[in-house]
Amino acid sequence: MPVTTLDGHTVHIDDEGFLTDYDEWDEDLAKVLAANIGIDLGEEHWKVIRFLRSDYKERGETATTRRVQTVGGVPVKEQFTLFPNKPGKKMAYIAGLPKPRGCV
Amino acid sequence: MTTTQERTAIVPAFDDGPTDRTIAIICSKGNLDMAYPGLIIANSALGEGVETHLFFTFWGLDMIVKSRMRDLQFSPLGNTAMHPIGDAHLPQTLAPLPGMTAMATRMLKKQIAELDVPEVPEFLDQIVAAGGHLWACRMSADMMKVTAGDLRDDVEGIISAADFIELTGGAQLLFI
């Protein structure tokens, strides 16, 4: 399992760069991850990220964009604005979670 | 003992910026089961930043006609791949029985809902919110006497086959 160091944090990652250990993430790391992909985190981004973290903790699965809308309360359109082009993957990456597997 | 390798930060290739990948999905079916493949693929394509167009033709128009889009049905008639128990096929002789279409439709809707997959109109709402484009086929609209007022408000236009060909130059095409 590859290990990398991001701004002083040592984390396990998969071959694509997604974090594999839930507990290795913290909010400081999120900022580093976001900066890696050119995103500046604002309050709305944090709302999504915190939802994803708590939802993952409860269900053991990364929420899809649909779930972020229906349960998390952030409309899909907004998700595309906050995390352009590939919201599902970007949100998961910044939140230190696996890529969403669901189809919707 | 697990071996770990130090790596420099691997950042997933999110390939930002406009990709030139475009996908056009032709939805030609009006049965409930066949409404979904196009929608699922469109939604996934949009989630990967791919420009996505859905073109509704023939029976697929039912997916975007306001008075019909909530009432798509499913029948086992002609679908020999229904396996209610194990690998056994549902006998076709049962398919035309009164009530069978309603029952099969209900069962399918339930299975879809159990996966948290939305119904067709809401799914199209999500697809449009994600940047998808919806188009209706002119010839089918003429044949079935359907006008723009009958369609969802977010359908961008009723276009001809020639328009469709122009619109989808270089696009990957999917016919459902």
Characterize the structure shown.
The complex is a heterodimer of chains A (about 100) and B (about 180). Chain A contains five helices and two strands, in the order E-E-H-H-H-H-H. By secondary structure, chain A is mainly α. Chain A has a two-stranded antiparallel ribbon. Chain A is globular. The mean pLDDT of chain A is about 95. Chain B is built from five helices and six strands. The mean pLDDT of chain B is about 90. Chain B has helices spanning about 30-45, 100-115, 120-130, 140-145, 160-165; strands spanning about 5, 20-25, 50-55, 135, 155-160, 170-175. With about 180 residues, chain B is of the alpha/beta class. The radius of gyration of chain B is 20 Å and the shape is globular. The chains are: A mainly alpha (about 100), B alpha/beta (about 180). Strand 1 of chain A pairs parallel with strand 1 of chain B, so a sheet runs across the interface.
Strand content of chain B: 15-25%
Quick one: how many beta strands of chain A? 2
Order of helices and strands of chain A: EEHHHHH
Give the helices and strands of chain B as they follow along the chain.
EEHEHHEHEHE
Spatial ordering of strands, largest sheet of chain A: 1-2
> Using DSSP, what is the number of strands of chain B?
6
Low-confidence stretches of chain A: none
Q: Give the strand content of chain A.
A: 5-15%
Distance between the ends of chain B: 51 Å
Summarize the structure.
Chain A has five helices and two strands.
